Amino acid sequence: MNAMELIRSIGSIGEIQQLAVKGAVLPAGLKLNSHIHLPPNFSAFTTIEQVIDLAKAQDVRVIGVTNYYDYRVYDQFAQLASTAGIFPMFGLEIISLVDNLVKAQVKINDPGNPGRLYICGKGTMRFQPVPPAARKILTRIRRSDVTRMAEMIAKLTAHFASVGVDLAITEASVKQMIVDRNACAADQVYIQERHIAQAAQEALFAKIPEAQRADVLTRAYGVAPKAPVTEAVKTQNEIRSSLLRAGKPAFIAEAFVDYPEARDMILAMGGIPCYPTLADGASPLCGFEDPVNKWVTTLREMSIHMVEFIPIRNSPEVLTTYVKAARAAGLAVVGGTEHNTLDLIPLEPTCLKGDPVPDDVKAIFREGACVVAAHQFLTAHGQDGFVDAKGKPSPIYKTADERIKTFARIGAAVLARYLK
């Protein structure tokens, strides 16, 4: 059973609507996560089976996958999730550019690169196969990304050679590292900056004794490293921020699609365009997201009707402020973890320093996940979802709040039927 068949098998539209009218009851304390990356994307996980086993052990019953640029693992994820009684949500992530904000040096939701906009699609059901309109954009994204990653690897190795270290990493060796770690096919692999940083760190640690690493990294960075030279993940993050970002020695300028094209691709694949929010995950706050009232107004002007948070970046206080502002502005809200470093943190989202997500914020995240579940279910049955194919909400709802609550009731019925 593939992903589309699984979602359709939950029931007919009529059955779910009847259950929604009655008021479906979800399991008390339902744990969920709207955003993880599955391998071969850069991920804390090595296999899909590991994700499922951890979700079962931690009693997380709803998991949203949000990969870059290849989605063939989704059907396998759906099958394993179904067997485990875990509801799968399907999504994608695209890196795009907003030209006028690049020129104005405004940071959006990438603290290192002005004008770079990460945008997600939630509830995408048209990924196998990818529709022609989306495939045209996806092919261009892949081609540009492959070229950029190869150039960045070459530039990084040349930079380390200039400070006396031969990393001996190539595009082929980085790709093979990913294949070996994730036991996947090479044609499923799209190298990311984090993969390059991992390969560089592993080569550096293998070649340079611990006592000499700080000196080598000081020469490479131009300043002393802050990360302990014995800690792999922190060193990977520092290599990325110190050498691969805009203005740094191994940076290669992006040739990403613009925001309207990224949005068109998400809509062609049946998804809800969703803005991933940094808030105080960046210090100082990104100009696009500050102040909060300007941020929500701008999102609505961009025809974005859903936002997402990765609470591990945020203090409970700032998270609450941003989540409630978004929801009050008529935006559905979801929350995840990404798991896009090698740190194997819990699947249920927590705030910065492990502080719990406040209960009222959890309730808003749960509502948002129900909206995604409803959208996924309706579009799998050939109906318009939370947004239509042009990204517009249905005109039958008088307010955005009414629409969110209606879709949340439908999604709660979908989840209740599935989880039962």
Number of continuous helical runs: 15
Determine the strand fraction and express it as a percent band. 5-15%
Q: Helicity level, as a percent range? A: 40-55%
Q: What is the CA-atom radius of gyration, in angstroms?
A: 21 Å
Describe the structure.
Helices cover 48% and strands 11% of the residues. The protein has 420 residues and is of the alpha/beta class. Strands 1, 2, 3, 4, 5, 6, 7 and 8 form an eight-stranded mixed beta sheet that branches. The model has no long low-confidence stretch (mean pLDDT 96).
List the keywords.
420 residues, alpha/beta, eight-stranded mixed beta sheet, 8 strands, 48% helix, 11% strand, globular
